[in-house]
Every structure is written in structure tokens, then in C-alpha cells.
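Late entry, written up from scratch paper. The run itself happened at the end of the previous shift, but nothing got recorded in the book at the time, so transcribing now.
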Amino acid sequence: MLALAICFEIAGAIGLRFSEGFSLLLPTVLALVSFAFALYLVSHVMQYLPVSIAYPMWAGGGTAGVAILGFLMLNEGITPLKLSGVILIVIGVVMINRVSEKKSGC
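Output as recorded:
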């Protein structure tokens, strides 16, 4: 469920990128609906994981995912510093996941 929330977070950010300041209907609707689903899903995840685990994983996963899509699909520049930042985010998300006190359902 958390992975799906991260995917919707990424979709929302990509929708924002193409919405041209909310002036284009389809990307604007995509962004708003995606963010709504992401928030809905992460709110349910927080019933099973502590907020100190769920939120950083959701936010970090979304941030890294958007950055990676920007590099790969949107031809945004990548520098060693940007790449290092994304790698550190991924490492942080993995570390948080490793120490999480999971209950069933996530």
C-alpha cells in the first residue's frame, strides 16, 4: 500500500510539471487526483506503521522517484551532486524500512 502511495505521489508531481500553473485541465486533474489518492493511501498505512516510518518513506520515495523520472524521461540535467542526493535518499528510505516495526497489512 505504501508503494502505491509513493507511485501516486510521483504521478501527482509529474502532473504538476505538465499543468502549466494549473492552466491545463488534464494534467491539473491528474495531479490533484493523484495527490488525493496518495494521501488517502498513506493515511491508511499509518494505521500499521508509525508516522516516523511511514511519512519519511513516502516523502523520500516520492522525491527520489520524481528525481529519477526527471533524469530519465524529462531530460533534466543530472550532476554528480544530484545523483548523490538521490542515492542518499534511497539509502535513507531503505534504512528506515529495515528498522520499521511493521504490523501486518503493509
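The mean pLDDT is 91.
(Scratch paper discarded after transcription.)
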